[in-house]
Each structure stands twice: as structure tokens, then as C-alpha cells.
Protein 1
Amino acid sequence: MLPPWRTAIVQARDGEIRIRGRDITALMREATFTDTIFLLHRGAMPGPRERRLLDAILTSVADHGANAPSCAAARLSASGNRQSVSANIAAGLLTIGDEHGGAGEQCMEMIAAGLARARDQAISIADAAAIIVDEAREAGRRLPGLGHRVHTVDPRVEVLFALALEGDREPDAITFLRAVQRSASETIKPLPINIDGALAALLHDLGFPPQAGKLLFIIGRVAGLAAEVAEEYAREKPMRIRIPLEYDGVAPVAD
């Protein structure tokens, strides 16, 4: 007999469902959806600051317009598929990777490495950031968390950073990311901190592992993808999306 699957997340049996040991009916009465997301991923209920920050992160990534890769893919799929909303939402999710919505994970790894270097080498956060920028430039690597194809200043970033303040103190993760931006602007070119960088700094400060940078983007973006698919169904005719196409291959070959 094969051993059973093991899980520490949910226990479901006749008449009872518990998430991380907590009765789901009590959560339904007393908790928010953001509380439940935190509980699922961290194994404990959030405090007021944790709830506020995670709620703002999820709102910030919910949608970025129909031309964002995930939203565009979901609507393109919905244009040709009127039978499965789940397939259309999945089509949008499949576009999420290191370039779209996934740089938060890489940025969390960069933040962790930079702060560890500052601590282990007894150097300033600014000096550690400058070293990481120099290493990325020499290796020809992009710096995760910087740059945006639409915004010269991402309006969501400073809102998240302001919410993360504890009194007048800025978390080290934010200080490090600002230092990376300054160093990159001096040695490469001016680049704004983007939403991936902002959520990475906040999630690092909240104690999440790097993978959460991508996972929580996905959780938030599903809300927007559902709305995009619903609007495509409600407002547009099937097969309405036609992408301009120009053939530039070989000339016709005679039979």
C-alpha cells in the first residue's frame, strides 16, 4: 500500500474544514480573504500591519489594463473560447514568468543577497547595492525590480513604501532597493522601481520566502483576469480579436 499524501494546510472531514488548524466557519465570520491568504502561506493569522500591507500588494497587482500580457492572453483566449472561463484565465496565468509578474521572486533573492552581504562584510547597504549593480552590469544581467514599459514613475510604488513605514523608519529591504535604483541610475541609466520591486521589498520585510514574489502576484492577478474574461464575454462578439499580420517569408514557390 502506498503511503498517504501529507499536508499541513487543510484538514477536511465530514462536517469540518480546518485551515492551518482554524475552523473555516470561524474564519468566514471573523477573518478577511487577505487574512486567509496569509494564513495559508505563513501558517498564522496576520497582525494589522501585515494585513494592511498584503491587502495593498494584492490590490496593486490585480490588473494593469487589457494590454498587459496576462490580460491580453486571457482576452484573446476568451475571444475564441466561449465554453471555458477556467481555460481563459489559465491562458493569462501562463504568460506570467520572469519578464511579466515574476521578477518579484528574483528581486527578493537580490534583496536577501544584498542585505546579507552588507551584514557579513560589515559594509553599508548603499555599498552592498553598488556592488550588486556593478556585478549585474559586468555580467550583462537585468536588475529585477527596476524599469517599466509604461511608467516613468510607477504610481503604486511609493504608496506601498509609505504603508510599510514603521514610524519614521524605512525597512532595510526598501532602503536597499532605493540604493540599487540610485546606483543603476548613476552607472547604467535612470530606471524606476516597478511593482515587482516594491512588492518584493515588502514581502521580504514581512518574512515571506522569495517564491512568494511570484505566487502572490498570481493570486492578485486572478481577480483582474476573471474580470477581463467576463467583460470579453459580455461586451464583445466571439472571434473579434484580429491581430495585424504581415508575411515576410520567402516568395511563393512554383509547383
Protein 2
Amino acid sequence: MSSTLPLKKREQAVTVPQILARKSAGRRVTVLTAYDYPTARLLDGVRDLDIILVGDSLGMVELGYDTTVPVTMDEMVHHSKAVRRGVRRALVVADMPFISYQTSEADAVRNAGRLLQEGGANAVKLEGGAAIAPTIRRLVECGIPVMGHIGMTPQSVNLMGWRVQGRSEEDADRILRDAIAVQESGAFAIVLELIPMDLARRISEKLSIPTIGIGSGPSCDGQVLVISDMIALHGEDEPAYKHVRHYANVGVAIREAAEGYCRDVRAGSFPDEGESFR
């Protein structure tokens, strides 16, 4: 049985052409990550949210890995299926994990196909610039919509580290060329992660597809945040990233709720008679 909701329930779903049209209309694109059914269902009820990204960031924020590198295709398919069950309206984009597309175009098509067929995603996201452009082109030729991702690419953390990319003129020119190559290969949008604001502005002005920023300033055509960062899910243990704004402190709320529950159980005040079956 397919994990995709029936078409009659998805008639008002956000589409790739609509995301492309956001740029010319001057309407910023909104993106948040989700990795499970309840979160996806809640986010899908936010009418101004365009895209739900099943990011390989799940490896760090959900599975406890140190980086995104250990995330597997099976894990991405598993979480994409869970998200798909909770979404009727937003466009679902799933990350292709490390080594699922770099080895060959055939592997990329096969693995991207799994994310659409098994995972229920509407599109996939790949990291890389000019070097990966032929793979993006092949996926698009196969009818698979692709979002690009350049700048700081987490799957290459062992090569580049966690740091801002494009500070030098040479690196900035390379990243601009990467952005153009990704657009020319047929991607419908591109994530710009951890690059200087001026460079993000140059790229956004140069491209005709929407740029989605994360840690790259306000001049991009849209923004993406990891949901656990946005709601401070990990409480005081949350890393203090400059590009993150906490819109809620869910981590503290969960801890306080659990402490209240434990106090009531210890005191014998939960459950009371009204909370018990008779």
C-alpha cells in the first residue's frame, strides 16, 4: 500500500511550479524540517509553510549521530514515510544521504526513486555544485524534482569542517559558479548554507530559481530551519547557532512537564479517581 495520501485529499497541495513562481512574485519561500508523523501533521496545518524537508539532519537531532554522514537510505526512507503520512498540503522534500548519489548517476536515480516511490517525497535534495550537476540533470530527466544545496555542505564536514564558506574572492566565485551550474542542470530551488550575506545576495540576484538560506542572511528568496533548533527542543543543551531564532522553548516545557508528572506519581496524586476507569 502506498504511503501517499489520495489525490482527492491533496488537491490544494503545494507544487514545484508554485515554488518556482514564488521568486518572480516576490513571495518568500518557507521551509522547516520534520522527521516524524506528529511533527509533520502539525507543520502541515501552518498554511504559510511551503516545504517540509525531511533532512538528513535527522541523524544528529533524532538519532544522536555526531554528523549527517552515518545516515542511510533505509533511515531516510523510513522517516520520509512517517512524514508523508502527516502531510496533505506542503511539498515534501527528502535529503539524499551520503554516498547515495555520488557513486554513479544510476545509483542516484535508483535511490532518489526510492524516496519518491517508498518514502512518498515529492522531490529530493542533493549537496554539491558543478561536480554534481550532471547527476541533477539526469534525475530531472527521469521526472524527479531536485533541490540543490551549496556552500557549507554537511556531508562534506570531514573535508571542510563546520565553518562559513566563500569568504575569499576565489571561493565566492566558485560558489557562484556552483549555483549557476545547479540551476542550469534543472534544479527548482537551491539551499545556500553558511555563506556571507553579500555572496548570498549576489547569487539570489543572479539566479532565476529561489534561493533558500540557512545562516546566509536575509537576502535569500526563502529560509529553512531545523525544527528542533527553532523550538529549542534540547533545552539548555541546544547549540547556540547565530542563524537560529528560538520561537518556543519546548525542551524546557517537556522537562518541566515530566518533573510535574514524577512529583504527582510519587505523591500519589496521579491518577485521581476521575482519571481512572470504574
Protein 3
Amino acid sequence: MENNQINSPENSLQEQSKDTNIQEIKTDFDLKYIENEVEQVISKNIFPVEIFPQPVQEIIKATNENLDFPIDFIGASLIYASSVAIGNTFKVEIKRGFQEGAVLYLAIVARAGTNKTHPLSFAIQPIIDRDKKTYQDYERAKKDYEKFSSLTKEEKRGIDEPIKPVWNKFLLSDYTPEALAEVHKFNKRGIGVYCDELAGWFKNFNRYNKGSEMEFWISNFNSKPINIDRKTNEPIFIPVPFISVCGTIQTGILKELAKDNRTQNGFIDRILFVIPDNLIKEYWGESELNPLIVQNWAGIITQLLNLPVQWDDTLNPVPEILHFTPEAKKLLFKWQRENTDLCNDAESEALAGIFSKLDMYVARLALILQMMRWVCNEGNKETISIEAVNGAIKLIEYFRKSAEKVFNILASNPAETLPDNKRNFYNALPKVFTTEQALQVCKQFEIPERTVKYFLTNKELFNNVKHGYYEKNF
């Protein structure tokens, strides 16, 4: 691969700091100039491409230049695909009794038409190719099994009965919770859920099993055992689950995430948001992607998929445990103390909850980056290096700013964007009111009754408690 280092504003800033000793600047004007330059760089939430091994940086750069993949989207998608490929092969130990795997919940956020889906499709294509191959193997084995099953008792004599085949797959996009557990039962190495529209993931919660699916995903994030008792089929028990989730969502649908108590029960805290600054739809370019880029990414993921799994005597995976090097652990604990201070000083309980989950994510991302470095011959798979931890911290700070951006979107009051008369009418209504009360209040603002009745159907602003009774959402 061509060795082209991607230059980020952060790298440029580091070079500037090497060449300029701020202590030698004598004038207030020059000092303010330097401070303004620094502020302009750090105020933007720039995805830290430099944290990846060089071959992965080249993939990000090439797909951005030739396929118009937004840097944030392709970078996060490559991390997700690596997470699924690593699965239950490795965990990282922060200290005795405190281990983290590579499970991620990722949401790629942007308005329609800004190339959200294609980067994710590119990243998971090698895993899809693996699923295609295992499906072909399954089809052949199924035919052999059916052929044996069709034999008479006499014909079966002396022939070893084949094991009923199952499809050992990695990715799911459309499933019932029971089907998900069934797939995971046969692939205990780990699986991934891929949603082209992530809203379909959380909107379908409780569609099949009232009241339990969201709790299932909260539990899965913490790698709690999956235990499903079924009336018509055999029970399912998965003591070491691994299910990573990634999908795209339009910015305008983000507020759907806040419904059904998802901001209070910690569900949203577990999602890493990828939401670039000032993203726009790009013109098509005429340059073509070098096929070697596709091959190189396929090679990286294939090596991760080929990592062997250790099994215990109950045929459940036993992840290999990686430890931090002393300097990496020192850096990690220093960051954790700073993150803890941010949690304690957060302006809201919601932000405190989001920041607290970053403690787990920094270790998970360090594990993923270390394995990517190993595949690219820039590290080993015996310890977590300081380079991997430093990269994970940079990623976490990117995700922190993204979470704050999403929090501001979720916390915003849509009533403030209404025309003056409707906004004043909305503010004048009591928290809970009847249709008759609304029709009385509307007279103060010269709003027709028909308009009020239609206005009350706005589910973003009102909750229809029961017939004729409403509650304001803000």
C-alpha cells in the first residue's frame, strides 16, 4: 500500500506547537492570535483518522476521495465491522474482575441524501461475503441431510447419520428477538445487527414481546447471559453473548429515540453517535476507487474473522484476555479520572449518564484499535498499547461532543419554533387539559377552533392521555 499519512487539523496543530514556543511570544496580540487559532481547531468535532493503522487510514482517505464517503461515517463503519469480526475472541481487562469486550452500539446520523448507508455497506461487505459462503456450505449440507433422511431404514443401515446442519451466520438485519437468539445460539463467536434505518430497531421494541426487548438490549450491552424460555421450542441459554449494533438514522427522527422512557432507563447512554459538523450532499466525482482498497479491507476483516475461538467444556467461548501495558494503563486511568470529574460536574443527569458509559467504551475501542493494529502489522495481540489507548481516548472525545450535540437536539423544545400565536397559545395551556379548555384558551389568541383541534393531533407537542384529555410534552 502507498504510505500516505492523512493530515488532520490536530496533526497540523501539533506540528505548529513544536515550531512555536508560546513562552517566547512577547505581545498580547500574538498570544491572542495563537489562542484563536487553537480555539478554531478544537471547537470543531473532527473525526480522528490518525488513530488508525496506516492501511486503514488509506482506506478512509481513498473512499472519501473517490466515493464521497464522509470521513466520520466510513471511519465509524470500519470500527463497527471490526467489532463484529473480533466477537468473543478477545476481551480486555482493566483490573481483576473488570473486563470489557468489543460490543458497540453505533448510530450514524445525518439528513437524507448525505451518503450514510454506503460507507456502512462497504465496511460490512467482507462479513456479508463470509455469510454468503457459509450459506452455500449450509445448503450443500442440508441437501445431504435431506437425502439421508429420505432413505429407508434398510438403506440407512451401516451409514453414519449426519448432524442436522445449521447456518452459522454473522449479520442480521430483519429478525424477531427469538430468531436473533436462535442465530446467536449457533454462532456463539458473536453476531452483528445491521439496520439501514436504525429507527426500525428501536421502534420495533416490544412488537413481539411486550415490555422486554429494550431491557434485552440494555442487558446485552453489559454481556449479561441470554436466557429465553419458549413454549413451543427448546429454551435458549447463551452465557457469553456478543451482539454489536449499527445503523443509520435521519437527524429529524432523532427525537423518536427519546420516547418510551429511553432517556431515563440508560438505553440512549449506550449509543455512540456519529454526527458530523456541517455535512452537505456532495457532487459526484469522476475518479474511481482502486480495487486494491476493497481487497485490502477484505483482507483486514478476513484476518479478524479467522481469529480462533477458545471453548470451555460446555462448548461456550472463553475470550482471550489482554492487559494494558503499564504506560497505557497509566494514561487510561488518568483519562478516567478526568471523565469522572466531567460526570460529576455535568449540567444534567442525562449528560452525566452518557459520560459515565464512556468509561466502558474507551476500553472497548482500545481493544478494537489494538486488534486492527495487529492485523496491519503495527502492534501485537498480547497487550493493549499506549497507541491504542491514546487513539481510543481521541475517539471517545469525538463521541462525547457528538453525544452533546444529540442531547441538545433531544432537549430542544419544538414549541419554540411555532408562529407567535401558536407558541403563546401552547405556553398558556396547563400541563394537562381537556379539549374544552383548549378551545377556551384559543379565543385569547384568535385561533380558529378547527385549527386548534388539528393542532392537538401533533404528537410531538401533545400526548393524547385519553379521549378529550391531553398532556403537553414540553
